[in-house]
Amino acid sequence: MTQPNDDHRPEPDRIREPLRAPEIQERIARIPKAVIKRLSLYTRVLQNLEWSNVEKVSSQELAEHLGLNSAQVRKDLAYFGQFGVPGLGYYVSDLRANLKRILRTDRPVRVILMGVGNLGSALMTYAGFIRQGVKFVMAFDVDQAKVGTTWNGVAIHHVDDLEKHLKVGGADIAVLTIPAETVQPLVDRLVKLGIAGILNFVPKRLIVPAGVKVHYVDLAIEIESLSYYLK
Predict the structure, then answer these.
(1) Phi-psi label, residue 194: left if phi above 0, alpha if psi -120 to 50, beta otherwise
(2) Phi-psi category of 80—alpha, beta or left, where left has phi over 0 and alpha has psi -120 to 50?
(3) Model's pTM, two decimal places?
(4) Contacts 24+ apart (CB under 8 A), 10-14
(5) Mean pLDDT, rounded, for 191-202
(6) Domains located in the chain, CATH noted
């Protein structure tokens, strides 16, 4: 991917603060990553219970849905406050609303996609994102055959015009599904435009400043890890 023209270089004052204030960043950094991931799993279970018109749920019932134990559920939730009623359990709707607030999915999560290949296209059409309030607001690629078109309602722009379009639309998270050799210069541009969350499907470690969070998804590693348990 080519570097932007001088006319499109981001001004220094465009650099945005992290999504959370520094003092909050320090506090949440002490919470194990596994706990945050389980919060997402809890919200899925609670959503299904809501759809089934279940009003209350116990920690034991939540644990059974996910193959955990009730002590783990109570410990996870205790990191964030007191939500249950002794002897009654948790009100499903209230607990789900609180967990979505904690995960910051109680508001639309604006996502941009970098790289509209097979994987990127599949991600944009995944219906589960919409159900969880995740919205792809734009996508970028270098393929002129794709630039200027839309995919599942998402406009695809040329990566050279990243600064131009991201200034207008804004986004919270960038999803990367691009070649490894182009990823770091692109990440530098995204950070300057205020992106503070990156989901990286590229098998390369990224260099980012403090306040920018990167999650890595390497499908090959996941398959290799699973194969270890097979005969």
Answers:
(1) left
(2) alpha
(3) 0.77
(4) 10/163, 10/189, 10/192, 10/193, 14/167, 14/192, 14/193, 14/194
(5) 93
(6) 6-19+106-227 (3.40.50.720), 23-103 (1.10.10.10)
